[in-house]
């Protein structure tokens, strides 16, 4: 089931999404003593991550990881790990246990087994998977047209290495199975172009055409979507 939260302005959407994440993480800590969240990179989540960083959570009980990563050094401008370290993992939130996707392997394919082992050790089901979406309908690093898309949609593994058809850098991505092994899926999208892609995805059609459909058109996990236009 998809619940949509519509906003005119991106800052208000980000603040509302951060409050919703904070509430769910706090509830998970109260109920199970641990909370776990997988976060997207790219441009969209920055204000959410900055707001969430100030949340008065027991951060030592929070496990943080990524839904995807570019296979670049953690100090590279395109690193999603760098984004998290610069925004969320600051102040009290630096006490969270961050599980990176990137490791020391020469490429994403060689690094996948170590990443998979790190993911297998996470506290499943994750409480929240925060997805983003590209204007091509990709989510995490499940790209339309990628050689690994069918694998990403069907594998029993939690992670896979991907070479995007157009975007730079090899990637590590959570698989569809991993995304759907969460308690809550959140999606954040901003702008008219992404809104149009989201509407097209919701109207139905092949997942291979718009991979975001793997999260939207399913009944296993509740989905909330924050839309700002
Ligand atoms: O490459 C990526 O793109 C998507 C969307 O990013 P955005 O910059 O348009 O917000 C993102 O969700 C994903 O994590 C990232 O690696």
- In the CATH scheme, the class would be Alpha Beta
Give the overall shape, derived from the CA principal axes.
globular
Bound ligands: the ligand O=C1O[C@H](COP(=O)(O)O)[C@@H](O)[C@H](O)[C@H]1O
> What radius of gyration results from the CA coordinates?
16 Å
Strand runs, count: 10
Provide the domain count: 1
**Numbering strands along the chain, what is their spatial order in the largest sheet?**
1-10-9-6-2-3-5
Topology:
Layout: E1 2-7, H1 10-32, E2 35-39, H2 46-53, E3 62-66, E4 68-70, H3 80-86, E5 97-99, H4 108-120, E6 126-131, H5 149-154, E7 159-162, E8 171-174, H6 176-179, E9 182-190, H7 192-202, H8 213-216, E10 223-228
Parallel strand pairs: 1-10, 2-3, 2-6, 3-5, 6-9, 9-10
Antiparallel strand pairs: 4-8, 7-8
Bound molecules: ligand LXAUTJHC.
Ligand LXAUTJHC is lined by residues 40-44, 67-68, 80, 132, 134, 167.
Provide tags for this entry.
229 residues, alpha/beta, Rossmann fold, 7-stranded parallel beta sheet, 3-stranded antiparallel beta sheet, 8 helices, 10 strands, binds the ligand O=C1O[C@H](COP(=O)(O)O)[C@@H](O)[C@H](O)[C@H]1O, EC 3.1.1.31, 6-phosphogluconolactonase_DevB, Glc/Gal-6P_isomerase, hydrolase, 6-phosphogluconolactonase
């Amino acid at each position: 089931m998809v619940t949509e939260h519509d906003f005119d302005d991106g800052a208000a959407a980000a603040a509302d999404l951060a409050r919703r994440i904070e509430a769910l993480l706090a509830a998970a800590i109260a109920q199970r003593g641990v909370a776990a969240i997988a976060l997207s990179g790219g441009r969209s989540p920055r204000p959410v991550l900055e707001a969430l960083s100030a949340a008065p959570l027991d951060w030592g009980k929070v496990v943080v990881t990524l839904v995807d990563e570019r296979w670049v050094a953690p100090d590279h401008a395109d690193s999603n790990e760098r984004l998290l370290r610069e925004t969320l993992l600051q102040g009290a939130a630096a006490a969270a246990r961050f599980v990176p996707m990137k490791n020391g392997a020469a490429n994403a394919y060689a690094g996948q087994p170590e990443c998979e082992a790190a993911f297998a050790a996470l506290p499943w089901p994750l409480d929240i998977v925060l997805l983003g979406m590209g204007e091509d309908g990709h989510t995490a690093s499940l790209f339309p047209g990628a050689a690994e898309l069918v694998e990403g949609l069907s594998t029993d593994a939690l992670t896979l290495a991907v070479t995007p058809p157009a975007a730079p850098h090899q990637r590590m991505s959570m698989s569809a199975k991993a995304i759907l092994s969460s308690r809550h899926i959140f999606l954040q999208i901003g702008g008219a172009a992404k809104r149009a892609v989201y509407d097209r995805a919701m109207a139905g059609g092949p997942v291979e055409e718009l991979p975001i459909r793997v999260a939207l058109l399913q009944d296993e996990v509740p989905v909330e979507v924050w839309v700002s236009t």
